[in-house]
Amino acid sequence: MMLRLTFYTLANRTENSITGGMKTSIKTQLIRSLVAALTALGLLAFLLWYTQRPPTLGGDFKLNHNGKTWQFSENAKKLNLLYVGYAKCPDVCPMALSYSAQAFKQLTEKERENVQLIFISVDAENDTAESVSVYAHQFNPEFIGLTGTTAEIDAAIKPFGASYIVEKDPKSYLGYSISHTDRVFVLNKKGIVVESIQSPRSADEIITKIKENL
User: So what family is this one in (predicted)?
Assistant: First the structure.
């Protein structure tokens, strides 16, 4: 009787041990499957975010300023406004630069120390480094005028999503016209676009963006 009881007890313990082991194994597999599923979902979410996120615009660039190389990374301020145009532009360029100049007048001295405006001329054939600088200074003595060869200009403005087209125009006194991006880009110290103002039509638009990002 004792032998039967002992055998039954051992058999029962063995069965419980096997059953418990199976339950533990199933539980472990479920946990591993859950972790794998969550990892896959996390990876999928990251890929969706990465492929659909807005592209980062901007970066470092260098052009000619008064006969010398001017590199953004060496001259950047906390906030930088960038406008692309040309010195003989009859309308949108002087309008954007005039509004920008008015906005700069509303800044405190400390704020002006942390902000600058950069004007890039895309008229490589007709605008010299000196003439672009003179043009920019007409609006504000602290505005920076830059230009370069066609290849240098293209390399500088392309990362910002800016573009231009030079066309012959018999109706223009210049004999040509340039269609270009009419947008003030607001850049951080690394040259990355943090804001932009499409076709600015008042100084208030510009001063608001400056103060929001300083």
Answer: Belongs to the SCO1/2 family.
Q: Which CATH class is domain 62-213?
A: alpha beta
Per-residue pLDDT for 11 more than 60? Answer: no
Residue 180 assigned as binding residue: yes
Rounded CA-CA distance 214/195 in Å is 12
Is 137 labelled a binding residue?
A: no
Answering whether pTM is above 0.85, one says no
pLDDT tens sequence across 23-69: 567 766 766 766 566 566 655 554 454 344 456 899 999 999 999 99
DSSP for 4-39, written as a single string: HHHHHHHHHHHHHHHHHHHHHHHHHHHHHHHHHHHH
Annotation-wise, does 89 bind a ligand? yes
